[in-house]
Design goal:
The protein is α/β, with parallel strands linked by helices. The protein has one domain: NAD(P)-binding Rossmann-like Domain (Rossmann fold), CATH 3.40.50. The protein contains 11 helices and 9 strands. The protein has helices at about 15-30, 60-65, 85-110, 145-165, 185-195, 215-225, 245-255, 265-275, 280-285, 295-300, 310-320; strands at about 10, 30-35, 50-55, 70-75, 115-120, 170-175, 175-180, 210, 230-235. The protein has a 7-stranded parallel beta sheet with strand order 3-2-1-4-5-6-9, with helices on both faces. The chain has a two-stranded parallel sheet with strand order 7-8. Helix 5 (about 185-195) links the parallel strand 7 (about 175-180) and strand 8. Helix 1 crosses helix 6 (about 215-225), helix 3 packs parallel to helix 4 (about 145-165) and helix 8 packs antiparallel against helix 9 (about 280-285). The longest helix is centred in the first third of the chain and has 25 residues, at about 85-110. The relative contact order is 0.13.
Amino acid sequence: MHASQSSGVLITGSGGFIGAHLARMLAGNGWRVVAVSRKVRNGESIANVRNVELSLCRDSASWQAALTSIQSVVHLAAHVHQTGSKKGRDEGLFREVNVEGSRFVAERAARAGVRRLIFLSSIKVNGEITAGRPFGADDVPLPQDAYANSKLEAEVILREICFRANMELVIVRPPLVYGPGVRANFRLLMRLVALGLPLPFRSLDNRRSLISVWNLTHFIEVCLNHEFAAGRTWLISDGQDLSTSLLIAKLTTLMRKRPRQFSVAPRHLRILARLVGLEAEMSRLCDSLQVDISPATEQLLWRPTLDVDEGLARTVAAYNTVPSSEF
């Protein structure tokens, strides 16, 4: 779904993993993009992209200038847990960035007459584990940590602001997003596979949904214009759920490493993780988390543009060509 050059989209968090990819993709498809980030990096200029350095909750006049002639806002800016950071500091930033920052952006967008706001939330709003059936968008939210609570609170606030301002709201709750530049646990898993370390996950038979950055950004583009996207919450994925063991096997093959998985009973893995304070991390490896994408495929006629094998292949190719410290 391409746009005319006059279609203006402002992206917050454009310096991040997802935002940078979205800005390039939309610009290439003819959208006029205003890319907002806290720090504009020096680099190649991209046609149709205007980089703007702005901070959330500050300098309202500059925000209003950036929002001039903008029809849609994609709000990606967020704080996620940083490895090694203190719990109290994280919780404060979750509220400052994810809740109050979202309120600020929505209020400025409403004041500027923006037509549609797309908010990138998280499947963690639904919960951490599925058993028997995948999560659906209409399920009662069951956030389990401060990050998920902040995303849910932001959703509630945005609904109120958009209702009052007659501004269309689209909420997207993706599962784990991967692709070139992915951080956190997915990057760690790739490093472990690249090092050829034996991994004790062969016995895991869970199912987890994930989505490549290419499929996510394509879905966001669909939501910019589709008449049925507004006023809804959407769950999306690559459409093929993987066990942790199968994901590692696919990465091992793509990285041309010898298979080094061995079996440890999940209950023993959980006990060991609890002893070293990594219970939540082990849960993400052992438990299932699946999402139902049928509303998006049936009502928006959206289909993932890449299957999971191609998404993983592109991600590994990028990992192999970029220094690990920069990936």
